[in-house]
């Protein structure tokens, strides 16, 4: 049976109570949350790729964030810390590698001090362990961090996790519970007689959860939703520390972010494999899957994205122009190196070696207000629920976010 399911064959008689479009972390955890509430429900996950986690969920930093970046009124804050704890429990239960290595944030400019205070206030409001530390403690935790940081924060609960292990284990657990997977099949929109249209024919289903990541807005629009938004994808590329330099980073060294932007800034992360990644950038991308310089970009889509970027640039809301200038320059290794050096002054340019690790953030722009959306957006009706703007930390928070998604559907 499993072979049949994985080849995507479907019997004409099949009817599913719920279809989840997208086998990223949001889709898989949503499937699990549906099963928790409705254990006997017939459930299908439909994914356009040959396997789960081929996009953002398999290409991120693998950091389980503690949640201090987000104000308590945001969905991100409501799910990040609790979701991170649940993912850690899931990892422990299934023997998935997790390293609670902690994180330091170092401010390198006095202008960042108000943000440091704001992050600490977020932590207090959210019951998150985060403390201000002096430079001696900073260097004891991360000897390569800037010795003259203006301020620093330590978050002991930040962890890194084996993201591929999480995806594979979740998919296996869902299969064992009877969830049907259809790969290499794209959900296209509403089909005839209440069915769901896909590239290989309609699926009879009661309710659709759209968890399509960078394509979620496209599918949502096919159902009449997401009209207020358009996608501007941002590419995150990573460098790696050469093996001889990797020992200089013990856990995670992060900058103090620009909180007007949904990006955390170039950081150093010791991944679960022991490799130390430096990145990601937040470079405007030319397509939803434009992982290379031009690879993955399609001319029409690229043209539409360029128009949206030009509008953001001209409107300059939240200093977008500055972001565009700063980030585009990071394509050049010398500039990227200078940025990374702010967090690790002893970093030599030859310490950075290229990687092919790159991810795309499915960032939505609010068309009427001309600004980047900072939080998750859920829209839907009696037949579908659309998960929009599932940007970082949607991996960390996914187990709790999925419960929020299922509750928002109102159907179970
Ligand atoms: C560079 C980078 C670093 C990040 N670092 C972190 C981090 O350290 N910690 C953290 O918590 N978060 C991080 N994030 C964010 C995190 O990776 C994402 O928020 C999360 O993976 C989103 O999951 P998703 O399931 O919504 O999207 P995805 O993983 O992209 O899954 C969507 C799936 O839908 C499929 N799909 C699309 N359209 C269709 C269709 N029409 N029919 C069927 N299937 C379809 C796609 O093929 C894909 O498999 C990072 C993101 C990036 C880009």
The value of Rg in angstroms is: 21 Å
Say what the CATH topology of the largest domain is: D-Amino Acid Oxidase, Chain A, domain 2
How many structural units, i.e. domains? 2
| Tally of helical segments | 12
Measured between the Cα atoms of the first and last residue, the distance is 28 Å
**According to CATH, what is the class of the largest domain?**
Alpha Beta
CATH H-tier superfamily of the largest domain: D-Amino Acid Oxidase, subunit A, domain 2
Question: What is the number of strand segments?
Answer: 23
What structural class do you assign from the helix and strand content? alpha+beta
Task: Estimate the global geometry from the Cα principal axes.
Answer: globular
What is the average of the pLDDT values? 94
**Strand fraction:** 15-25%
* Low-confidence spans: 1-8
Indicate the percent of residues in helices: 25-40%
Q: Biggest β-sheet, characterized? A: 9 strands, mixed
């Amino acid at each position: 049976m499993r072979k049949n399911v994985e080849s995507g064959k479907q019997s004409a008689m099949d009817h599913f109570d719920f279809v989840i479009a997208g086998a990223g972390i949001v889709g898989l955890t949503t499937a699990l949350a549906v099963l928790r509430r409705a254990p006997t429900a017939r459930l299908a996950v439909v994914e356009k790729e040959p396997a789960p986690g081929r996009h953002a969920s398999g290409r991120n930093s693998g950091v389980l964030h503690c949640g201090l970046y987000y104000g308590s009124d945001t969905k991100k804050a409501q799910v990040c810390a609790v979701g991170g704890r649940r993912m850690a429990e899931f990892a422990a239960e299934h023997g998935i590698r997790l390293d609670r290595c902690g994180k330091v944030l170092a401010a390198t400019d006095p202008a960042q001090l108000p943000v440091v205070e704001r992050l600490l206030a977020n932590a207090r409001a959210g019951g998150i362990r985060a403390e201000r530390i002096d430079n001696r403690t900073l260097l004891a935790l991360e000897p390569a961090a800037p010795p003259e940081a203006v301020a620093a924060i330590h978050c002991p609960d930040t962890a890194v996790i084996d993201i591929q292990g999480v995806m594979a284990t979740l998919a296996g657990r869902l299969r064992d519970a009877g969830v049907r997977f259809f790969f290499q099949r794209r959900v296209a929109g509403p089909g005839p007689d209440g069915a769901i249209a896909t590239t290989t024919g309609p699926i009879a289903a009661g309710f659709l959860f759209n968890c399509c990541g960078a394509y979620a807005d496209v599918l949502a629009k096919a159902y009449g939703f997401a009209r207020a938004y358009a996608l501007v994808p941002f590419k995150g590329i990573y460098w790696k520390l050469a093996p001889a330099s990797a020992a200089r980073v013990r856990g995670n060294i992060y900058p103090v972010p620009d909180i007007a932007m949904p990006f955390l800034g170039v950081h150093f992360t010791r991944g679960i494999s022991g490799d130390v990644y430096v990145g990601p950038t937040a470079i405007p991308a030319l397509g939803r899957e434009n992982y290379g310089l031009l690879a993955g970009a399609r001319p029409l889509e690229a043209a539409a994205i360029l128009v949206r970027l030009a509008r953001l640039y001209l409107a300059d809301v939240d200093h977008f122009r500055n972001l565009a200038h700063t980030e585009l320059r990071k394509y050049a290794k010398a500039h990227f190196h200078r940025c990374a050096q702010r967090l690790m002054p002893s970093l030599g340019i030859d310490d950075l070696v290229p990687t092919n690790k790159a991810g795309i953030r499915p960032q939505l722009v609010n068309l009427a207000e001309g600004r980047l959306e900072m939080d998750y957006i859920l829209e839907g009706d009696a037949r579908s629920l659309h998960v929009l703007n599932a940007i970082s930390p949607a991996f960390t928070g996914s187990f709790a976010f999925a419960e929020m998604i299922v509750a928002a559907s109102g159907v179970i």
